[in-house]
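**Folding the chain**
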Amino acid sequence: MTALTLSTAAAPGLRADAIVIGVAKGAKGPVVAPGAEAVDKAYDGSLAGVLETLGASGAEGEVTKLPAPSGFKAPLVVAVGLGPEPEKDSSFDAEALRRAAGTAARALNGSKKAAFALPLTDAADAGAVAEGALLGAYSFDAYKENAKDPKKAKAPLAEVALLGGKPRDRAYKAAVERALAVAEELNRARDLVNTPPNDLYPEAFAAVVQAAGKEHGIKVQVLDDKALVKGGYGGILGVGGGSEAKPRLVKLSYTSSKAKKHLALVGKGITYDSGGISLKPAGHNETMKCDMSGAAAVFAAVVAVARLGLEVNVTGWLALAENMPSGSAVRPGDVLRMYSGKTVEVLNTDAEGRLVLADALWAASEEKPDAIVDVATLTGAMMLALGSRTFGIMANDDAFRSAVHEAAEEVGEPAWPMPLPEHLRKGMDSPTADIANMGERMGGGLVAGLFLREFVGEGITWAHLDIAGPAFNEGGPFGYTPKGGTGTAVRTLVRLAELTASGDLG
């Protein structure tokens, strides 16, 4: 993981491979952002003009490299676009800083140390830059033969020094420590999502969680297939029945002696989704190792909460199964008896995520938490509705849905509130069972949310995050987001835990 320090050093005298500065898009051309005054002075105040000559505009995601001025110990200046220049008496928002820092970190792969001289008006800005840099420096090279050979592969940026930081200021230190904990755990989630399914199956995933629990003082309970049979977890068993890799239900419990609230998090953990008997068509299987992104996000969030020592009780439930076709797989037309006692007619075995979540939601409900939030790569319909970078939020309480949306936007995770139209519930009526796992085709993402609502305990506030779009980036990297697993929803969940701890979330 990239090392991170707060530094009061002046840019000219700092030994580093590069100095990172910000440039904004002004009305008349690029504008050098605060934090880069020493660099601009070394260019006799003409840095903006030099950048413009080199084609820089200050647009978000833009990177311009130029030789450092005479007298600097770093040989390179990296100017990264921050987007539009803020209005007078305003500053850059946190997300602009995160993305710029992430873009710069990606551009500096192979470098040992970079000094970031981006605008820092307060501790929150320092946290945003730190988080962006740590997330941007991520790479997943575990399966590449040349990854450890510096002559053949570029390692991620090894060290980031935040210039303008205040190492002795408690607020700055806390902001950077928070960024470090959240970014490291989010990157752990990315690693899990990127791990191929022949190595990350339910039992292996559970082992990773147990090791982390031991390291961070989190109680971990694993229900194996025999325990699931004994407990009557029909949804998880049905989905996992077709695979030789048996399913698991993993419970993580973080407790604080000062906690007044209990937040439960539930994650879909389909370690590989073939679609089962309702086999996915060609071209839709290749990235299905990412179907456990919800469980990875929940796991990472609980560990981050433990590392931050938040004064809230947080329980994580990971519903882990591999959805495969075989002679023992659940069939379209089968009826499953869920952990709640309800029966479900399975009309499509590729609508499996809601089945494993249903069991985990009911198990979470039995503990009567103050709120439950589930996270899942649940429906292609949500991708059609919101695209590949935004996740949908549904809830049984409008105020809670709004609070979750605000938390997501605050941490820089694009999200959008979605309804749960009551008229769509009728489409899941079954002549054979209590409910079917499919309903109307139109509004499929909302239908899935309505199905899950059936398995939330009475009187418990609940929200559902459908992260099918942003969980796995099949395009090129941008900002602090890499190609592959993104770790989306981790930061939202951590922020919800913080708000719950402070009493600002219900």
Observations:
- The first helix runs from residue 37 to 42.
- Residues 193 and 290 are 5 Å apart (CA to CA).
